[in-house]
């Protein structure tokens, strides 16, 4: 005669071995919303912050002599010298032409607008998945088509 406790334990262990793949699938499905939340947080918070930081770094790197700047401390002045060895700028402030040395990272904004930016070129066109599109490739393909017709 079978004990009802052992009978129910045997039945549940058999059912658990059959539904092992179902429980794994259920567990993976329960992690999908969590993964989606992390992806959305990256798209909304982290990616724009990194993009802004890169723009600020390029702005500081492209500061030239004669540019009007504002430091992160609120000091306004004009760049009169750049010392590359220790990465500092010499700025001139006020009507008394007082000169100060500041670190390049302390530049909050460059207020001078340049007609031809030094470091910037034409915006690079990118295709699907970040691959660069070559404008010459389109011209080459049209030339080959013309040659095929002739």
From TrEMBL:
Show the ranges annotated as biased composition (Basic and acidic residues): 114-123
Predominant place of localization: membrane
Membrane topology (UniProt)? Single-pass membrane protein
Transmembrane parts of this sequence: 27-46
Q: Name one GO biological process term.
A: protein transport
* Region Disordered, residue ranges: 114-150
Instruction: Tell me which GO cellular component terms the UniProt record holds.
Output: plasma membrane
| Keywords from the UniProt entry | Cell membrane, Membrane, Protein transport, Translocation, Transmembrane, Transmembrane helix, Transport
Q: Where in the cell is it found?
A: Cell membrane
Which top-rank group of organisms is this from?
Bacteria
In the record, the note on similarity to other proteins reads:
Belongs to the YajC family.
What is the name listed in the Swiss-Prot or TrEMBL entry for this protein?
Preprotein translocase subunit YajC
Q: Which organism is it from?
A: Caproicibacterium argilliputei
């Amino acid at each position: 005669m079978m004990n009802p406790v052992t009978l129910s334990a045997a039945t549940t262990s058999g059912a658990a071995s059959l539904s092992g793949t179902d429980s794994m699938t259920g567990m993976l499905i329960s992690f999908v919303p969590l993964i989606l939340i992390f992806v959305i947080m990256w798209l909304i918070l982290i990616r724009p912050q990194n993009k802004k930081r890169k723009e600020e770094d390029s702005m500081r790197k492209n500061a030239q002599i004669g540019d009007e700047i504002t430091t992160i401390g609120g000091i306004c002045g004009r760049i009169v010298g750049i010392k590359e060895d220790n990465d500092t700028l010499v700025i001139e402030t006020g009507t008394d032409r007082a000169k100060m040395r500041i670190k390049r990272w302390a530049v909050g904004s460059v207020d001078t607008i340049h007609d031809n930016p030094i470091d910037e070129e034409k915006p690079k066109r990118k295709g699907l998945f970040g691959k660069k599109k070559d404008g010459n490739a389109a011209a080459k393909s049209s030339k080959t088509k013309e040659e095929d017709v002739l």
